Amino acid sequence: MIDIKQIKELIKLMVSNDLTELDLESEGERIGLKRGVGDKHVQFVSPPPVAAAPVAAAAPSVPAGGQDHGGPGGAGVQLEPGRKAITSPMVGTFYSSPNPDSKPFISVGDRVGPDQVVCIIEAMKVFNEIKADVAGTVEQVLAESGQAVEFEQAMFVIKPD
Predict the structure, then answer these.
(1) N or C: which end of the chain has fewer CB within 10 A?
(2) Which domains does the chain have, with CATH numbers?
(3) pLDDT tens figures, 137-146
C-alpha cells in the first residue's frame, strides 16, 4: 500500500513542476492525483473500475409481458414476448467495460450465460460486477457507458435460450 509519505512527496513533485495530473501504477497498486492550475490543493482520484475489487451482484432478469422496465425517470421498455430484461439492482453509474480502453463485456448478438459479467455499476465508489442471471442472446443494450442508471432500470434485453 502506498503510504502517506509517498503521497506527500508526489504532491510536492506536482507543485514544484506545475503538474495538474499524475497517474502511477506499481506492483498492482494505482494512484491518481489531480490539482487545479495555481491551486495548492490536490485531490485524490479514485482508481478506474479495473483497479477496484468488484463485488458480484446478480442483476434481476425480468420476464416479458408488456411491462415497463425503464425504472424511475427512465424511458419505459416494452419487452416483446419471450424476452427478458437485465435490470440494474442499484442506483449508480453504468460501465459497459472494465476500463475505457477495453471492449464492452457484451454486445448485441453475443451469447451470455447466467454467471457472466455483463457490466459494472459504480455505487458509492464501489465497483459492482453485474451478472446476466439468464442464458440467451443479447438483443439490445439500453444503457450508455458512463451514464447513471436507476434501480430496476432495464440495461439489456435478452432472448433466452
Answers:
(1) N
(2) 4-45 (no CATH), 51-160 (2.40.50.100)
(3) 999 999 999 9
